[in-house]
Amino acid sequence: MLPTNADLRYQVARLSRQISAQERRLQEMRAQLHPLQLRLDALTYPVLTLPLEITSEIFLHCLPVVHSGVDGISTSEAPLLLLRICRQWRRIALSTPALWSRLGIDVPRRENHATDIVDTWLGRAGQCPLSVTVKGPIKYTEIDDSDLFFETLCRHAPTIRSLELEFDLDDWEILPQRVNFSALTELTLRLFQFDRVVDECPSDPVEMFNDVQGLHRLFLSQIRCRLVVLPWQQLRSFTGQLYDIFECMEALSLMPHLTECAFSMFLDEGGFEGDEAQVFSHPGIRSFTLFRTLSDTEYLAQSAELLEFVTFPNLESLQLLDVDHYDHEILHSFLERSSPPLKRLVVHPGDDQGPTDLALTTQALHAHLTELEIWYPDKSLASLFFNSLGADASFLPRLQELSLHCQGRRAEASVGGLVGLAAGALAKRGSLPGAAQLRKFRLIAMGTFYAMLSQAEMAPFRRLKIQGMDVFIGRGRNNCLFDTAQSGNILV
To answer: Crossing angle for the helix pair 379-391 and 415-429, nearest 10 degrees?
Structure first.
């Protein structure tokens, strides 16, 4: 049955009364809200009462130490995150140049916004020294104008202190020439997915860093020195990644004032014929490292072949990190030939090497060595080493830090065996007149290589701890299975 006119008028009147009542209630609530809002607006959050200098300093500590990738432009991290909190924090962040002094940008990921991001970000840094990382390739990405991108980057070049460029061979021709990098001290250049085919190497060298007078630290990955015009004479630190032996020798000869040098090397399959007349001597190098690099292709750079053809008479630190193609005789010959004042030695054989069987009777080690790190020590080496360490004050007389890393390779000393040898030798060492006292001892088991150790076996190390020695036995910093502060049965 359809409602009558009277019913409709009644319903309209009822709803109108309800709306009027709600409107009156809404007005009352607004009247209550107004004074409360005035009181709230009169209050200030304690954090907003801090002096601007303090807030700026806190903001700087909010910057991530490392980013998950090359690109560090994220709204979930400082400094961009700070812009989203409140107006006052945004003003403080934008007026703190140091917050914007570090930029990492992945150009293909940012595409057409890359140029604007670089200009805006670095513009906020003002005159602060800049650290800039640019990941390519650039030329064939969706970026509107690669020339404009480099023009923008070069406009900020006078304040860039550290620069890292990763680019493709096709980007080589669009790199600018002779840029004003007056503040540049550290430079890293990487080629993206380079297969080391000589015919594809660019013929014209890059000249954009020719006039950099303050540069002292250089890192080149897959780029031969002859492909970059640089003030080579002034460089103090150099790293060459994915090099062959000829490129290593070329680099050493170009930089006579080097004090620090590192290479990851390919084994020269063509055969580098050498004799005593071809051994290259570099008197400036104090620190030298050979390390392992897995390239983007199938190449694995982990050779120590260079040791056969160089002499470093003033070497103080030598690190062989996960490298092959050497044995104790090659290393012994290198040290004897160089006769360096060596203070630090790290011997970490690669996968193709057996346990370390370094002849530690090498006279070149005795006089100055203070820090020794050995990976995968051979059983006979371990026995000889600790017997000499505990009985002969003239054996490594200045040694203060000793680290041993174990993995369970064939003929390698076991963790339990090393613990037994070390316990007695370290205790005796403390009473040898004329021998330096060890300040630090590390025994680290790699992977699943471990053993059960009793409290009795650990007792000597706890006594050493009480006497002031820093002792660690375990499987890594985040998985410590023995520390002298712990007790009970220990799994190492």
So the answer is: 10
